[in-house]
């Protein structure tokens, strides 16, 4: 019987069938009949039992499958045994019982967050990509995050901070923490350097000396005072908000608070292109507005009034955003 995990976000059928172990093939040997022939060694990096993989069919529909020995993958174009992929190299093309071809790959983080079960809005890959560089998340960084949502941003932060980094997350809803933990575990594996606290970030941040502080909460301006206390001098606060009303209030609060400078607001519009033969054009649909990204730097002390007035105008940081300097 096929199972479809909850919270399916993709327009295409994405989570595919895992079924009970298939019956033994006629003529299969049992242990009583003698030892099985030695298996050839799996190629390096081969797909393994227990992994979550992505199958892509000829129409680019995606199916996420958890590989289990003895299980069968079923979809509308037939079936095949998971065992046919376990031990095969990543990138293998497999043919179903009805002749459909599927490519088996490990999902990238960008693919995974779009397919994983979610109970909240997530930050989309185009923004995750920008956030990692705009917040300058580096290996070994000590990062504070709130809230965890479905864990998309947490996964990106964990990977960029690496095993020597530490991510501390405040999330006020226990059920979101549970789902996010499942999503994180499934892609990242155990994350001993992730500390999740069921807490209201508007009530303050207990820990300190963070290098980076990343917010995806409805009222980030309520966290500005606590962010100033929790960040080390030179640290970066980054806030992601879907509406310009939220972004405006956050930027104004960061400027007025006094411990931050170089308050910068950007959004990213990602336009894919269709390039096939003579048909070279932007695709008709694109993910345009998703949210605004605000960054600011934590100062070591208060700015002299002259510099403070210039920084209010936002000119230096906006210019540097455009030039990439
Ligand atoms: C849009 S979701 C975050 C999505 C997440 N960044 C992701 O990519 O999956 C916003 C989250 O913030 C949490 N949240 C809202 N207000 C909060 C607060 N005051 N303290 C802690 N978490 C809060 C919500 O419960 C929700 O899980």
Principal-axis shape: elongated
Number of helices: 8
Q: How many β-strand stretches?
A: 15
Strand content: 25-35%
Bound molecules: S-adenosylmethionine
The CATH class of the largest domain is identified as Alpha Beta
Please give the radius of gyration in angstroms.
24 Å
What is the fourth-level CATH superfamily of the largest domain?
Vaccinia Virus protein VP39
Number of domains: 2
In short:
With 325 residues, this protein is of the alpha/beta class.
Blueprint of the fold:
Layout: E1 52-57, E2 62-66, E3 72-75, E4 78-81, E5 92-95, E6 101-105, H1 109-115, H2 125-134, E7 142-146, H3 152-161, E8 166-171, H4 174-188, E9 194-198, E10 210-215, H5 224-230, E11 231-241, H6 244-257, E12 260-266, E13 273-276, E14 279-282, E15 292-298, H7 305-312, H8 315-323
Parallel strand pairs: 7-8, 7-10, 8-9, 10-11
Antiparallel strand pairs: 1-2, 1-6, 3-4, 5-6, 11-15, 12-15, 13-14
Helix pairs in contact: 3-4
The chain binds S-adenosylmethionine.
């Amino acid at each position: 019987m096929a199972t479809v995990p909850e919270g399916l976000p993709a327009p295409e059928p994405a989570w595919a069938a895992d079924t009970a172990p298939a019956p033994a093939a006629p003529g299969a040997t049992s242990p009583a009949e003698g030892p099985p022939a030695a298996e050839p060694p799996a190629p390096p990096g081969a797909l393994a039992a227990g992994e979550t993989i992505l199958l892509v069919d000829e129409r680019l529909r995606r199916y996420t499958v958890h590989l289990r020995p003895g299980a069968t993958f079923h979809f509308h174009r037939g079936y095949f045994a998971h065992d046919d992929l376990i031990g095969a190299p990543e990138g293998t093309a497999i043919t179903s019982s009805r002749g459909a071809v599927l490519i088996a790959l490990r999902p990238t983080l960008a693919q995974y967050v779009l397919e994983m079960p979610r109970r909240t809005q997530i930050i989309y890959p185009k923004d995750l990509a920008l956030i990692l560089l705009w917040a300058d998340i580096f290996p070994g960084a000590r990062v504070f995050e709130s809230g965890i949502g479905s864990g998309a941003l947490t996964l990106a932060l964990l990977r960029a901070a690496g095993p020597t980094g530490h991510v501390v997350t405040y999330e006020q809803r226990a059920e979101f923490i549970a789902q996010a933990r499942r999503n994180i575990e499934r892609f990242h594996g155990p994350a001993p350097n992730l500390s999740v606290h069921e807490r209201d970030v508007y009530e303050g941040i207990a820990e300190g000396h963070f290098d980076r502080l990343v917010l995806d909460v409805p009222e980030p301006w309520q966290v500005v005072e606590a962010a100033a206390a929790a960040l080390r001098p030179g640290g970066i606060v980054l806030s992601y908000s879907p509406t310009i009303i939220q972004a405006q209030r956050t930027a104004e609060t960061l400027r007025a608070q006094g411990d931050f400078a170089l308050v910068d607001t950007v959004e990213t519009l990602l336009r894919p292109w269709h390039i096939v033969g003579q048909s070279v054009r932007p695709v008709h649909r694109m993910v345009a507005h998703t949210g605004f990204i605000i960054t600011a730097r934590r100062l070591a002390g208060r700015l002299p009034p002259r510099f403070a007035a210039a920084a209010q105008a936002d000119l230096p940081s906006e210019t540097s955003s455009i030039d990439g300097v």
